[in-house]
Amino acid sequence: MVPNIEYPGHEHRLCFMEKIDEDVECDADDSYCKRDYRCDELDHTTYSFIFRCVPCDFNIVHLLCGPLPCTIKYKYHMHPLILTQFVVEDRSGEYYCDVCEKIRDEGICVYYCEACKFVAHIHCLIDEITSVLKGDVKDRDLIILSANEQAVEQDMEGKKKTLKDVIKSLSEEDRERFEEHFEWHHDFTHEVADSNNTKHRDGATHGGRKTTQEEYFFPRSDLDFQRLVHRFDKYSNFRRLKLESTELEVKVVKVKNYTVAWYLRADLRNLLKKHGDVSDDDIGSELTMEMKSLAFHFLCRVINGMSRTMKKDITEELLRDWYGYLKFASGMGFRIMFVYEQLEKVKHDFFFLLENKLEYDIPNKLYRKKLELQQQIEKVEADLQRCKESSNSILQYWRLTKKSYSDEASKLMRDTADESLSRRA
Prior knowledge:
InterPro entries: C1-like_sf, DC1, Vacuole_Formation_Reg. This is DC1 domain-containing protein. 44% of the residues lie in helices and 12% in strands. It is α+β, with helices and mostly antiparallel strands. A four-stranded antiparallel β-sheet has the order 5-6-9-10, covered by helices on one side. Strands 1-2-3 form a three-stranded antiparallel β-sheet. A two-stranded antiparallel sheet has the order 4-11. The model is unreliable at 146-159 and 188-216 (pLDDT under 50).
């Protein structure tokens, strides 16, 4: 089978082929299987076929994680169905697939007909999807999650560079400016500040274990609410963001003159198309292309995250990260007030939804924690019971044999060490 499917960040084309080994991990980047939550749709799209690069032993085992057709023709619907990131028809909180008529996760991409408001699970169209992937498919016919129909941008000079390579290429002055905002464990610059400095910078709360009251604090008055927002803003303004090794190793591509992670290429293209080059001003014009690229990368991280995250799933930590990324881009002179304005609305909605968390999410979290502790207690009690049973068995055996051992011991104590030598033949 001839490899004919392009996958961003991988140097070879992939084959869509039958899965031979069941014990195969999914190597997809920034995909549904790498997220914190597990969705049923992911299991439904674990199919008998996989995307595979044989030379590299690179596999994408979930259909949902791989390149999917932009459009699908479904024989029971008159219009083509378009692969769409989010479809939320109303505020009911319950959304259904029009093929199987079962509930669907609104945070998972679907095939959608806007004219008819027709929505279909990915797994409900597996036959149609695999039929396209087995055929003479073109790169322009496939997209991955939030990517659009345009072809994948080529890596600079044909090399597969990473975000770490971009950081390494910074001048000493630019590196210092970058490290004012970010920290990471790395082997190509000096080590990050020790844990004591981190604890001091991030605040005492993060240096130790939170109490239940701190962890589940909820504002009971306008003053409490203002204090909570102030604490959030203060923490966001005075901390450095930690870059994980997985982000440092992500492949980057070139869009226009800038370099960003491959999965952000569509976000950067859309940003440049809608708002122009937001780095063009007095400060931004003095930046090197590497610093501009990093600023665009983290700006697009925010735009990408906001477009893919439901408001109910936003956490305080995620909000802080978004503000930290924008602070870096703003410090580089980027004109991004339009992003700040949207994020302020998101922050307001986040704190407004705390009431719902107090009523439902937090009690459920504490209940799950209680169940987990109960299971641990039951396990310890079971281990203790087995220990008692084992001890009783040993003691019973010892009591039965104690008399014979005692008699033998008494006899041995009356013998001398040279007994066998002193005996006459």
